[in-house]
Every structure is written in structure tokens, then in C-alpha cells.
Specification:
Layout: E1 5-9, H1 14-23, E2 27-34, E3 43-49, E4 57-61, E5 68-69, H2 78-89, E6 93-94, E7 108-109, E8 124-125, E9 144-148, E10 160-166, E11 169-176, H3 184-188, H4 196-200, H5 208-223, H6 229-257, H7 261-282, E12 291-292, E13 295-296, H8 305-325, H9 327-333, H10 341-347, H11 352-355, H12 363-366, H13 388-412, E14 429-436, E15 439-447, E16 453-459, H14 461-468, H15 478-488, H16 492-496
Parallel strand pairs: 1-4, 5-6
Antiparallel strand pairs: 2-3, 3-4, 7-8, 9-10, 10-11, 12-13, 14-15, 15-16
Amino acid sequence: MTVPVIEDLTPGQLPGRCRTLLEEGGRMQFAYAWFPEGDGPAELRYVMSPASGQEFRQWRCRPADDAVPSLAVAAPLMSWYEREMTELCGIAFADSPQPEPLVLLSGAQASKPPLVPGADASLAYRAQPYSLPELSEPSRADLQTLPFGPVRAGVAESAQFIFYYAGEAILHYYPQLFFKHRGMEKRFEGRDAALGTVLAERVSGVGSVAHALAYCQAVEAAAGAVVPPRARALRVLLAELERLYNHFHYLGHLSHTTTLKVGEAQGLYLEELAKQINGRVSGSRFLRSVLKPGGLRRDLDLGGVLDQLNRVVDEFTPYADMLLNSGPHLDRLITNGILTRQAAEDQGATGPIQRASGWDGDLRRDQPYAGYAQWPPYEIPVRQAGDASARQEVRIAEIEQSIALVKHVLAEVPDGPLAVECAPADGSEGLGWAESPRGALFYAVHVGAGGRLARVKIKSPSFSNWRVFPFTVHDTNMMDYAINEASFGLTIAGCDR
């Protein structure tokens, strides 16, 4: 990991440079604001990936008193980041196509935007009269509304989904997230960089390794630390073990929504086998408290892992065959929730979601980190249909790929130290990333006085994919909704942060 090339732009230059980037095949990734001088003015950062596999780059912009031009017309995925910056940092954007609030729910009260230095970390709420979003199209006599949530059945995370429907047809769908926004980025401020891993692992529990890895690599980039080969190899192993149990859970939950009960039970059984491997290897079923800036906290117990992994393979092979050939199961997946490649690209889809819509991209190959330069994925599974069936196929193929990667690492993991000293200097910064089970995950870290964190920005894959998801719901039907949502494998914790 290195500090990306940073280019200074004026607010007026941003729209033209954004259009040029997109015309040349590049892509905006995310944006954020921070306050480098404490009480001074804000600074905007835009992170993008140029075409042809070049390294990530950043634009730095210091807005004047006027509003910053919105980039969301040219790059729609930027809309949510701009809305975040408006609410949390007080940045105004001109000509935004979506100026309404995103993160702070109706009734939130704060003396100043929460990420402005000196702002109170807690928010007060005042009850507001309940109202539904208004539709711009003419009213229909047969139009009905269904507000579902924020408390949902089972262990589902809190969110409210508002359906406007006629009969079984969903005419419009509006998700309201951020009921459990925890201010995780604010919690990093003032912490010692070495302790930030504990917070990163808890942003989204089922992505503990990916979050910790992206965070640690950002701190290592800021410090100029080079992680030892053994630690890089074991980081690959941990990341792929995390991908395995996540994908097994995904397949079990997807089978639950199609009422394929055998498929549900077998998927959860395989998830349990994978978590048992995690526990024996690291002492944690969620693989926590192993990573740290500079390497690993301790070595892993690799004895017997190959035999346990082969047991998983023996169980998984017939299971995958059943899922790919079960007529009733596939009938509920094929053509359900189609996401076109154009919508996936414009709206910022990532991970298995983008790859199921025909887009060949994976950070493990395109921007190698940890030990992935030595052990890259042997193939990036891509499907063209963009439906729930394609999303299932991509994850099944990724399970096979992860098993192969774990075996390669086990056969070739080098000896040597597990960590190096990692102490970022005051005023340093770094960018880290990981291809989590749900897609591209980024951490941008700015270090302040005394080596303590001044700003940590998290770009999570579920934040991106929740923005994309409504595009697959409109003009579908109520009976297929739960299956479509399950096929995305989203987490609300990862989105809300």
C-alpha cells in the first residue's frame, strides 16, 4: 500500500475532470470531507480508479464560501457521498439531484454537523409526525402503500421499506436506512492508531477481517511500514476463510427465501463447519483480534486445517450441484431482480453484485494487497444476466476459488516474523482497501498530533450496494421481493456504520 497521488483542484474544475475520467474509462470510488486544521475550513477528498489498472488517485479540493458543484449528474454514485458530507460535515453542493437528507433521520437535532471538530458525538431526537414520501406521478385509485419496518421479524437488521404497489406489482420502493447509525467514523477520532483495529473489526461483524485489513493497510501506508511475507500470506488465508463462511451463510439464507429447506439447512451447516475452522485457526469464530497495524498479533494454528477444509469440499460439491439444478429454486431466481451492467456501473455496485451484472472487477487482482500479488484469484467469476440466479452463481464460483486460494497459501506459507513496527508520523495519511465478501472496502486514515487518528473514512460495500438495490425492485412483484433482497447479501450495519 502506498499513499495515492493527490492532485489539487478548485471546485470549478471538479465537474470537467470527473467527466474526463469517466470518458477515459475510469471510475469514481468515493468522497469524504475532513478538517485538517481543526477549527479551520473543510477539505474534500475524491478517490477514483483510472482505467487500465492504474493505482488509485485522489483529488483534493478546498471549497470557498460558495457551494461545491455536485458530481452526481455525471457520476450518480456520488450522490450518497455528497449527501453524507452535507449532513455530517456541513458541506453544501450546488445542483444536487438528490438534496434530501440521507443519514440523519427526521427529528435529529445537533448544534453543528456531527463530524465538524468539537461537535457532540451524540444526537438528540424530537418526535416528528409520521409521513410517507410523496410520489411525483399522478395518483391511482388502486395504489396502496405498505410501510414495512423498522422492526422486522427474526434477526433482521433495522430498516424501513416503503412499498407503493397495485395488486402484486411494486410501482415504487423507498428504503429508509440508518436507524442504527452508530457514528463509527467519529469514534476513531483521537484514538491511538494501534487501537483502531478494535473499532474496525466491529463496524460490520461479519466483515471483521476485511475491515481490519483495510484499516491496518491504511495505517501501514501512512507509516511506510512493509509487512513481513508470512503475515501477508496469513492475511490472505484469513480473508478467504471469512469469504467462505459469509458465502455459505448467503446460500443458506437465499435457499430459505425460496423455501428450499434442505438447501437452507445445508448452507447453515457448511457455515458452521467454516466457523469451526476459524475458531481452531485463530481462536475466534469471526477471526477477530488477530490483525494489527504492521502484521499479526500472533501466529495461526494451521495444524489439521487442510483435512478440515477437504471435509468442507466433500460436503459443498453436491450442495452446489443441487442449488444449480433445483428447478423450483431456480424458478424463483431466474429473471428476478435484474440489475443491468449500466445501472451497476452508474450507481456504484461492487463485489459479487457488479460481477453478476457483467462487470469484471476484483481488488485482489486489479489492486493486489496483502499476499494477493503472489496468490491472485485464478479466475474472476463473471455472469451477464444480472439476476438473482447470476448472483448465486458468482458466489458459488467464489467459494471454489477461495478454497483453492487457502490450499495454495497452506502449501507455500513462508516462515519468518509476523509483524514490524508501525508508528505513523503526525500529519501522515494512507489509503487501504480489501475485496470483502460483499465487494470493495476502503479506509482513508489521517493522523493528527501524537500519532492519534484525526479522521477515518470508511467506504463499505453495503453502502454502495444498498444504493443500487432499489433499481432492481421497481416494476417487480411483492412475492419476489424477499428473494431479491437475499440475493444481494446486504448488511445494514455495514451501510449505516
